[in-house]
Amino acid sequence: MRQQLFRYSVWLLVWGSCLQACRPIPQKSPSRGEGVAQSLDFEQLRLSVAITYQDGEQRYSNIRVRLRIKKDSLIWFAVLTPLGTEALRGIITPTGITLINHTEKAYYVYSYATLRSLWPGPWDYASLQALLLGEVDGGKQQKIVQLDADQMVMQCKEAGWAMTYFIGARSGKLERLVASTKAGSFSAIYEDFKPYPEGVLLGKATLTWYNSTAPTQPTATVTMKGMRIKRAKGLLKFPFAIPTHYQKR
User: Fold this and answer.
1) Contact (Cβ atoms closer than 8 angstroms) between residue 119 and residue 111
2) What is the pLDDT of residues 158-184, one digit of tens each?
3) Residue 198: which of 73, 77, 47 has the closest Cα?
4) Other CB atoms closer than 10 Å to residue 18's CB: what's the count?
5) Minimal CA–CA distance to 131: which of 26, 52, 49?
6) 30: Cβ–Cβ under 8 A, 6 or more apart, which residues?
7) Which residue has the higher pLDDT, 15 or 124?
8) CB of 78 within 8 A of CB of 95?
9) Residue 153 bridge partners (DSSP)
């Protein structure tokens, strides 16, 4: 349980970031302006979401994650067990990621260079923030391959990954992402969008990994559901202190 909890937390908040690494910018079209997908308007944001994880051998559900985001600079998160105890706390910054694993009494520090050496794909803070919010992050141009009354489809290639983004005309949001490389593939489905004063937020996301040796059988699936914005009075705090008796790993 401890190893799996740590594993799917890292997968969700770290490895999945390579999907957004292309950071597409919708190009101008003579038939439809710029077509930029809607994004949340905020400086600080507090969220909560329930997570279900499943692979070929394990399944865990009713895991809650609390998130606090300082736009473009800091993501704080805490992973809670079904009993409500905190199993994992972490912060993501433009320079790297630090995780505190309470169940193992250990902590982990990853620079983005280290992450790139452990898992293939370009990694950065902006892509992680976009992944968690189900948004298309601006940064690198890509080609629009379809633009009609139903959706806009964009494609790009980056660091061995082939990316296809599907933006819904009605929702104005990223609804589906498909990414593939020699090592395997990934799909993300975003749905159940809900309006908030800050903008439209996804209510559910399904992230599925496929191994290249078994492309029809999912290696792992992470489902985020019930995502909602929680109101905060005043500025948010981002408490993060590593206990002195925890070992670095």
Assistant:
1) no
2) 767 788 889 998 888 999 988 888 778
3) 47
4) 27
5) 49
6) none
7) 124
8) no
9) 146, 166
CA separation for the pair 84, 63 (Å, rounded): 9
How far, in Å, CA of 198 to CA of 71, rounded?
13
119 pLDDT tier (thresholds 50, 70, 90):
low
Give the whole-angstrom CA distance, residue 47 versus residue 6: 20
- In a 3-state reduction of DSSP, which class is residue 58? coil
Residue entry with tokens 């206990």? 243
Token couple for 80: 């809670």
Q: How many helices (H) and strands (E) does the chain have?
A: 3, 18
Decide: 164 and 136 in contact? Cβ < 8 Å: no
- In the chain the first and final C-alpha atoms are separated, in Å, by 18
Confidence of residue 140 (pLDDT cuts 50, 70, 90): low
Structure tokens at 98: 């630090």
* pLDDT at position 3: 45
Q: Do 194 and 205 touch, CB atoms closer than 8 A? A: no
Give the span between the Cα atoms of 51 and 194, in whole angstroms.
Answer: 18
Contact 177, 165 (CB under 8 A): yes
Angle made by CA atoms 100, 44, 202, in degrees to the nearest 5: 85
Alpha-carbon dihedral sign for residues 152, 190, 48, 110: negative
For residues 50 and 151, the answer to whether their CB atoms sit within 8 Å is no
Question: For residue 140, what is the enclosing H or E element?
Answer: strand 140-141
24 neighbors 154 (Cβ within 8 angstroms): yes
Whole-Å CA distances, 67 to 91, 184, 238: 10, 29, 10
Single pTM value for the model:
0.79
Q: What is the pLDDT of residue 64?
A: 93
